[in-house]
Design a protein that fits this description.
Rossmann fold, 10 strands, 36% helix, 27% strand, binds adenosine-5'-diphosphate, binds magnesium ion
């Protein structure tokens, strides 16, 4: 993968919340077609990393460093502009709209594609093919879905923008084990279709199972990185993150 095009490059990124240093000079790269995971415990800075990349945190004024996406500097750029470049961020905790129908939640993901009526309709059909349970409940308020279904809806909505680059923040969080493995199957399918993915997870072993490469984040610093197979064999990581 190392010879392919660098899609995302983060250079020496630091982020503070007031006096608290959430990220302390992290650098990472994602190549086109890769699945890259950032693993680390609670509070390590994973969500902050994704929010800063996608502009969801409005690149906090207390940030320094560079973020380049498809050759263009995006640090400081508004999140909607970054989204228009082909990046979709599925945030932590299923931010769906509970009072709106499943259909409408998905269509929100395509709101920038106003001229593409037929393509949007066919992507909606694809979303229901991908997530049949959502299709059965398309006219129901999304708030009636289970946690796992809401997580699928959040991902489905992200895909409705036809992103070339997908940021996933802990898609397995709070899911029953059977749904966790479904979720990872879905990620594998998306990767197989050529979507470039940056995946944040606490489920380190599973994340490294789908990813080509990984970075380990600890207290705002990258303490290890490499091909997934290598990280899975690392004795220190085994003890700390991989359940021995
Ligand atoms: N809005 C915020 N205000 C202050 N501190 C924050 C805020 N968001 C996150 N933090 C702190 O920044 C650090 C990194 O948080 P986060 O990026 O959410 O970690 P992770 O996603 O790995 O659990 C933590 O110490 C957290 O308490
Ligand atoms: Mg988080």
């Amino acid at each position: 993968m190392s010879e392919t095009e660098v899609v995302l490059s983060v250079r020496d990124l630091s982020v503070r919340y007031g006096a608290a240093q959430a990220l302390d000079g992290i650098s990472l790269e994602v190549h086109r077609g890769e699945v890259v995971t950032i693993i680390g415990g609670n509070g390590a800075g994973k969500t902050t990393t994704l929010k800063t990349i996608s502009g969801m945190a409005e690149m906090l004024r207390t940030s320094t460093g560079e973020v380049t996406f498809q050759g263009r500097r995006i640090d400081g750029m508004a999140s909607n502009k970054i989204a228009r470049l082909g990046m979709a961020h599925v945030p932590e905790g299923r931010r769906i709209f509970p009072a709106m129908t499943v259909d409408d939640n998905l269509l929100i993901g395509s709101y920038r594609r106003r001229g593409e009526v037929e393509a949007v309709a066919s992507d909606l059909a694809l979303a229901y093919e991908r997530f049949p349970i959502l299709g059965e409940r398309r006219r129901q308020p999304a708030g009636f879905l289970s946690g796992g279904e809401q997580q699928m809806l959040a991902i489905g909505r992200g895909l409705m923008a036809r992103p070339s680059f997908l940021l996933l923040d802990e898609p397995s969080l709070g899911l029953a084990p059977i749904l966790v493995s479904r979720m990872f199957d879905i990620i594998r399918t998306l990767a197989g279709e050529g979507t470039t993915i940056l995946l944040v997870e606490q489920m380190a072993r599973l994340a490294l199972g789908v990813a080509d490469r990984g970075y380990v984040l600890e207290q705002g610093r990258i303490v290890a990185d490499g091909p997934s197979a290598q990280l899975l064999e690392d004795p220190k990581l085994k003890a700390a993150y991989l359940g021995g």
